[in-house]
From TrEMBL:
A UniProt-annotated Pfam family: Lectin_C
CDD domains assigned to the protein according to its UniProt record, in alphabetical order: CLECT (cd00037)
InterPro entries, per the entry: C-type_lectin-like, C-type_lectin-like/link_sf, C-type_lectin/snaclec_domain, C-type_lectin_CS, CTDL_fold
Species name: Cyprideis torosa
Protein name: Uncharacterized protein
Length: 318
């Protein structure tokens, strides 16, 4: 049954500006998929020739799912490749990973048993994006140098107009505490991000049990790096900023910094009861909130080389 004036239109995907007008926009970046499998070398040249883009970097689950949804294997059954090249590179000496576009590696989705130490001086990484009854779709694996030269895979180019944050140069003689909870994001500190919701006071106590504090944020660069991690969880995270008895915001760990990243019209101290700060996952801006709210995860921060010796526990809120 139809009615006068009824019409159905398929929404067009948002396009990007020149020279990436044949790319499709997702969030702040532009993407282009080739339907023709290529060797890694040809794939890199293809992306570079398209407005200086790079083989794709992937920073969270939403971007991973988007990349999979754009794969041409679901539109063209004649495509016989089940892999897509990623812009992930491996330094064989340090075994550290880096993205070709310069963004830090803070998210991964390895196959079981990966990553393996590959052979050769120029290994690479591919992502499974198709194949009949393939349970590893979206998973990543390392390839040996010889495989990287000979194998053909689909090409996903990405252009991000934003400059990547600069990872501080770490002190090679200092390490993060053992246990697997701490992340080394460069520089002199280690971070633990938890999506276990709790109050600000509860988060502070949990950090102190590890010898840490809720994180202070010293600069825009540190905020951008932390946001790359936080947005993977899709929920706000407590940070170590709170109002003192004079109504001024100070950092729990005593760090003195003028840097703030409040969302527009924040902090507003609604009902004169918002004394603690959280970071939003969507854009990394901050909000003042009631300390006793328990819908928020948290970020702990500890200097490198420091043992997990519990600090004395005190509380704001519950």
């Amino acid at each position: 049954v139809s009615f006068p004036g009824d019409s159905w239109e398929i929404a067009e995907e948002p396009k990007c500006d020149k020279p990436h007008s044949d790319f499709v926009r997702f969030r702040n970046s532009c993407y282009w998929y080739s339907k023709v499998p290529m060797t890694l070398g040809d794939a890199e040249k293809t992306c570079s020739s398209r407005g200086g883009s790079h083989l794709a970097s992937i920073h969270d689950t939403m971007e991973l799912n988007y990349a999979l949804s754009r794969s041409p294997v679901y539109e063209d059954e004649s495509i016989n490749s089940t892999d897509t090249w990623l812009g992930l590179r491996i330094d064989q000496d340090s075994q550290r990973y880096s993205w070709a576009d310069g963004w830090p590696v803070l998210f991964s989705n390895w196959e079981y048993g990966q990553p393996k130490k590959p052979h050769g001086s120029h290994p690479c990484v591919a992502m499974t994006t198709g194949g009949p009854e393939n349970g590893a779709i979206g998973r990543w694996r390392t390839l040996d140098e010889d495989q990287c030269r000979k194998q053909r895979a689909l090409v996903l180019c990405k252009f991000n107009p934003s400059a990547p944050p600069l990872l501080p140069i770490p002190d090679s003689n200092k390490f993060c505490p053992p246990g697997g909870h701490w992340q080394d994001l460069g520089g002199d500190y280690c971070y633990m991000v938890s999506d276990n919701v709790t109050t600000w006071g509860g988060a502070s106590r949990r950090c102190r049990m590890h010898g840490a504090f809720l994180t202070s944020i010293e600069s825009e660069n540190e905020n951008r790096i932390l946001h790359l991690v936080v947005k993977q969880y899709g929920k706000a995270m407590w940070i170590g900023l709170f109002r003192d008895i004079n109504g001024n915001f100070i950092w729990e760990d005593g760090y003195e910094s003028d840097f703030r990243n409040w969302r527009d019209h924040e902090p507003n101290d609604r009902d004169q009861s918002e004394r603690c700060a959280e970071m939003y996952s969507d854009d990394g801006t901050w909000n003042d909130a009631r300390c006793e709210h328990s819908y928020t995860g948290y970020i702990c921060k500890i200097p490198k080389g420091k043992l997990n010796k519990a600090r004395s526990v005190w509380s704001i809120g519950n």
